[in-house]
Amino acid sequence: MRTYIIKRVLALIPTLIFATLIVFFLIRMIPGHVIDLMLSQQDISADKVTRQKIEHELGLDAPVHIQYLRWVSGVVLRGDLGRSLWRQTEVWKDIKTRIPVTAELALMSLMISLLVAIPVGVYAAVRQDTMLDYIGRTVSILGIAVPYFWLGTLVMIYPALWWGWSPSVELIPFRENPLGNIKMFLVPAVILGLFMSAVTMRMTRAMMLEVLRHDYIRTAWAKGAPEKIVIIRHALKNALIPVVTLVGIQVPTLVGGTIVIEQIFSLPGIGLLMYDAVLQRDYSVISGLMLFIGLIVLLINLLVDLSYGWIDPKVRYK
Amino acid sequence: MSEKLLEIRDLHTYFWTENGWVKAVNGVSFDLWKGETLGIVGESGCGKSVTALSILRLIPNPPGRILKGEIIFEGRDLLQLSDEEMLRVRGNRISMVFQEPMTSLNPVLTVGRQVGEPLELHRGASIKGALRVAIELLKKTRIPAAENRATDYPHQFSGGMRQRAMIAMGLGCEPGLIIADEPTTALDVTVQAQLLDLMKSLTRDLSASLMIITHNLGVVARYADRVNVMYAGKIVETGTAHDIYEDTRHPYTLGLMASVPKIDQDVKAKLVPIEGQPPDLAHLPEGCSFYPRCTFAVEKCSKEVPPLETVGGIHQKACWIDVRK
Fold first, then answer.
1. Are A82 and A72 in contact (CB under 8 A)?
2. Domain boundaries along the sequence of chain A
3. What CA–CA distance (Å, rounded) separates A249 from A252?
4. Is B98 within 8 Å of A234 when comparing Cβ atoms?
5. B159: buried, middle or exposed (CB in 10 Å: 19+, 13-18, 0-12)?
6. CB atoms within 10 A of CB A186
7. pLDDT band at A316; cut points 50, 70, 90
């Protein structure tokens, strides 16, 4: 088990190198250089000398591969993700202060997604072809078809127009006002959670339908187990194995979702940091964020893989 | 003779399909006595398993439905019980051993948990208490090192061991009736005999009745006190094992016997199969269901359904012809 984990963690390194390489080079291909943006904002007439000076100060005059190697050596040797080109703040500190917001949003969305998807999926399978099954399936199709950013925008606009209500723009810290904090995150988390629950619900339903046809379910009935036990003890655990995989696959969707949702609801999380950094072409912030997000996604997928061993006894890591 | 344990009267279990009602069990009546071993034989699709599942009311509905009949077990008609009352019968008074040991055990629960589960459900045992009994049951079914194996998962068991575990599962609540649906079909021949001997002796210890459903005439001959031969959802011949083997009265039973290889037969001798296919259960022929395949058939067979008639003792047959002639 331990050697398995070590092997898997080591295998993350090439993936991360590859991911950061792509981002590092791609972001520099987007039209609109960071220096141009800076100069245009400060309204300085861009003479060549000023430009070269700033470029040199920021270390952007070196060839791209040299920049990359400098950045990588900083990460590896000093654990330093670099500094923001605009604010000169440490990228890692920027990320660290924003982790709680995104983590809360992501966890709440994931929880809502699972709390909706699994019971509805199970119910739809057990009462296949009843009214509630159809309703569940229709709603989940809607969940897949309706973009969450559109729904999020509607939620921002219409309640404000109709009732003069709008979500808080100021972050309410959990420690000061737990209820207010949860209230603030609830709407964005529900929107993102429902969007993700659609696929999970359909997968849960399909897997339950398949599992319920297995011989061991008949064995459970023949033992005199009531429906609740047949479904929860005998069917659900078997049906959840692929659902766990799906949740692992959904993590990047979740990350992408938080970026959009944080922007709509102006939640100062990692997503918003990413959004601003891309707009400003803050190369070092983007690279640092990508490394961080990539690492999180890969680690969560590792956790998902490890959890198979707990759910499925046939999987044992040697 | 001892007390009657189970009495099935005029059981009709149909399945709804696009082609109409499939008459899987079409008017079956028989009794089962305490401590007796009853064999039900017939080819695939003759309604043996559906009869067994009907007793436990495990027919998937839809598409299946028990249209009419009575299943009187320990004095109560199971078909009249509420769902809750039925839960207390299943696994408690009647247990079932299924034919596929590979797929009939839940892959994510330990064998011990599954074997002990009926005690959790019906005797209010704790998980630990049930596991202790499960280990005893596994020992009874001669699983070596039962203490250690109880915490294993089904995939760590061989086919024979899984079937032993299935049998152990059926014994926990000391049921009055154990139904074994093709209990040895998926197993090695060497293991088959061991398991059947084991089942027979364990049911005898509990003075329970055993219903063995099989297509294997050899199994029936060796283990059953009494035999029902089924064809197209009906019992066509019933009697003691001796009656059926030594004094066969139904052409279908004769056909079944002829298609079984015998150890003393000339190596060059060919097996005689029963020609044709079993009838479409949604569109049964008028008259006797077997007449299109029957070598003895006369005109009457295609018009009138033969009733079960006593030919001596408890030996009955449903045929217009006297095959001895």
1. no
2. 100-277
3. 7
4. no
5. middle
6. 14
7. low
Domains and CATH numbers, chain B: 4-85+206-317 (3.40.50.300)
Quickly list DSSP for A201-225: HHHHHHHHHHHHTSHHHHHHHHTT-
Beta bridge partners of B71: B8
Angle at B113 between CA B109 and CA B118, to 5 degrees: 120
Tokens representing A110 are 């994931």
- Average of per-residue pLDDT across B115-127: 89
Does residue B186 surpass a pLDDT of 90? Answer: no
Distance separating alpha carbons of residues A148 and A151, to the nearest angstrom: 5
Average pLDDT of the segment spanning A266-272: 87
Q: Which residues of A272-305 are buried (b: 16+ CB within 10 A; e: fewer)?
A: bbbeebbebbbbbbbbbbbbbbbebbbebbbebb
Q: At a CB cut-off of 8 Å and minimum separation 6, what does B277 contact?
A: B293
Contacting residues of B for A226, CB less than 8 Å apart: 87, 121
Partner B contacted by A127 (CB < 8 A): no
Distance CA A227, CA A206 (A): 19
Closest among B199, B282, B194 to B233, alpha carbons compared = B282
Could you please state the CATH topology (level 3) that the domain comprising A100-277 is classified under: MetI-like fold (1.10.3720)
Short-list A203, A198, A199, CA closest to A239: A203
A299-302: long-range pairs with CB below 8 Å, 24+: A299/A12, A300/A248, A300/A251, A301/A248, A301/A251, A302/A5, A302/A8, A302/A9, A302/A12
Distance from C-alpha of A38 to C-alpha of A44, rounded to nearest angstrom: 9
Predicted confidence (pLDDT) per residue in A5-43, tens digit:
888 888 888 988 888 888 888 888 888 777 777 777 766
Cβ contact A241:B106 at 8 Å: no
Distance CA B293, CA B278 (A): 8
What residues are paired with B41 via a beta bridge?
B214, B229
Distance from CA of A311 to the nearest CA of B (A): 7
Model pLDDT, residue B55: 92
3-state secondary structure of B275: coil
* ipTM of the complex, rounded to two decimals: 0.87
Residue type, B278: P
Show the tokens assigned to A156. Answer: 């921002």
Angle at B178 between CA B174 and CA B180, to 5 degrees: 145
CA distance B35 to chain A (A): 21
Residues of A in contact with B117 (CB under 8 A): 220, 223, 225
* DSSP secondary structure, B212-265, as one string: EEES-HHHHHHH-SEEEEEETTEEEEEEEHHHHHHS---HHHHHHHHTS--TTS
Cis-peptide, bond into residue A119, ω within 30° of zero:
no
